[in-house]
Write a structure and sequence with these properties.
Structural class: mainly alpha
Order of helices and strands: HH
Largest sheet: none
Number of domains: 1
Number of strands: 0
Number of helices: 2
Shape: elongated
Strand content: under 5%
Length: about 70
Amino acid sequence: MVASSDNDQYRSRNALIRRHIEKMDASLHVGTKEFDISKVSEVDSVDDLLIDNAARYLLKDWKGVGELVNG
C-alpha cells in the first residue's frame, strides 16, 4: 500500500533533500566546465536519500508485493 505524495512530511523532507542536492551541485560546479570529478569526496548517494524518504513516508504496507496477479 502506498500513501499519497501529498503527504506533508514527505514533501517537506523531499524539498530539503532537493535543496541539499542543488547546493552540492553548485559547490561542485556540476554541469559546467569547472566541474572536476577528482574534487568530489564520498557523499551519501542522492538515490539513497530519496529512497529513504519514499520508504519512510509513502510505503505503508508490503501486502501484495511480489505476488502474481492473474497467473
